[in-house]
Specification:
Layout (H helix, E strand, L loop, with lengths): L1 H13 L25 H4 L8 H4 L4 H11 L5 H13 L4 H53 L5 H28 L2 H20 L1
Helix pairs in contact: 1-6, 1-7, 4-5, 4-6, 5-8, 6-7, 6-8
């Protein structure tokens, strides 16, 4: 039991050492650098958006299309086709293109912030969980070395540690997966921005 618990705890906690490569973001758990917001210039080379940045929400067709294009369940191919179809049927292509991109920029940036805030929340909880596991490991070592030894308590705490460590590891796996989401959002915005600009030309 002792060897098993120590091995499991060591494995789980080894992942916490490499955290926070950038001191500005101590709770950022991903290997990807944290970029808090997508810059407009990085994804849009079209005409100035001007009042489109605030006006896009006033157009029901645009807001419905933005919701569809921003949804991760909508494939990028389907999204690009929807953009082309919408702009091909627009009487004022330039205005609608600007409104559409302004809506996508707003919505995808907000989605991205939500995911990143969630990652940092989980990271804080993982750090707390790691500290708790370490404390309980020290308690277990003390129980194992006690005379007389309380086998029931040793076994109960050992089992609890294995369980907590398993949860900790599972969360780490989920975090690694979710760390890819901000990049996927960046790529979607860049791809759709490019299609919108091409359709304007």
């Amino acid at each position: 039991m002792k060897v098993l618990v120590m091995a499991v705890v060591a494995l789980a906690l080894s992942g916490t050492a490499a955290r926070a490569a950038d001191p500005r973001y101590p709770n950022w758990p991903c290997t990807q650098a944290k970029v808090p917001e997508i810059s407009l210039a990085a994804v849009w080379a079209g005409p100035a958006l001007d009042d489109a940045e605030t006006q896009w929400k006033n157009d029901a067709k645009i807001t419905a299309l933005v919701a569809k294009l921003s949804a991760r369940k909508t494939s990028i191919d389907e999204a690009e086709k929807s953009v082309k179809d919408f702009l091909a049927s627009s009487t004022d292509k330039t205005t609608n293109a600007k409104l559409l991109f302004a809506g996508l920029f707003d919505t995808l940036n907000a989605q991205r912030s939500q995911v990143m805030n969630g990652l940092e929340r989980v990271s804080r909880k993982q750090r707390e969980a790691a500290d708790k596991i370490r404390e309980e490991t020290i308690q277990l070592q003390a129980l194992q070395g006690a005379t007389p030894r309380d086998e029931a308590r040793v076994e109960a705490l050992g089992n609890e540690l294995i369980w907590k460590t398993r949860i900790f590891e599972d969360r780490n796996k989920v975090v690694r997966f979710v760390c890819e989401v901000p990049t996927t959002i960046d790529q979607r915005l860049f791809a759709l921005g490019r299609v919108i600009q091409q359709e304007m030309e």
